[in-house]
Amino acid sequence: MVWPPGEPLPDRVHCLEIDQPTRDGTYTGYLVPSVIAVHGGKVMVGEGAKRLCADIAKYKLQQNRNLFCECKNDIGTNITYHKAPEGFRSPAEIGGKVLGFLYESAREFGPDLPNCRYTILCWLTKVRIWTATLLNSCD
């Protein structure tokens, strides 16, 4: 959504609550941490991956191998994650997984969403974890 200051806000803008699988069940919220974990044959994006970070040793997670945090800081560089599985070896691939998760989650909200524009707002929190919120704005 492009909104020039001084113009009225569109009347159909709202935040979407996104379901995020965790080891303890589904967490639903507006914020989706940009964290990815590859664990137990599954790819966890968002809150589930963030919660796995709390016990890295227990889940045998290693940064840039099967756990990816703050990769947006590396987008635009030549950094590669050579220990990571195929499809997780660059900051752009990691960012694509997060955006793909958000896009697929938004599509679950209704059949009219293909006519909508999706905006991802990102900001850096005090604890240096990137977070994304998905908004949709329909014409």
Oligomeric state of the chains? Answer: single chain
- Beta-strand residue fraction: 25-35%
Helix and strand content put the structural class at: alpha+beta
The end-to-end span amounts to 10 Å
Task: Work out the helix count.
Answer: 3
Q: What's the SSE pattern?
A: EEEEEEHHEHEE
Give the overall shape, derived from the CA principal axes: globular
Low-confidence stretches: 121-139
Largest sheet: 4 strands, antiparallel
Number of E strands: 9
Secondary structure: helix percent = 10-25%
Q: Could you tell me the radius of gyration in angstroms? A: 16 Å
Mean pLDDT: 80
Please name the defining characteristics of this protein.
139 residues; three-stranded antiparallel beta sheet; 3 helices; 19% helix; globular
Describe this structure as you would to a colleague.
The chain is an alpha+beta fold and 139 residues long. It has helices at residues 47-52, 56-59, 91-107, and strands at 13-15, 18-22, 25-29, 31-33, 35-39, 42-45, 67-69, 116-124, 130-138. The strands form three sheets. Strands 1, 4, 8 and 9 form a four-stranded antiparallel β-sheet that branches. It has a three-stranded antiparallel β-sheet with strand order 6-5-7. The longest helix has 17 residues, at 91-107. The model is unreliable at 121-139 (pLDDT under 50).
Give the secondary structure arrangement, pairings included.
Layout: E1 13-15, E2 18-22, E3 25-29, E4 31-33, E5 35-39, E6 42-45, H1 47-52, H2 56-59, E7 67-69, H3 91-107, E8 116-124, E9 130-138
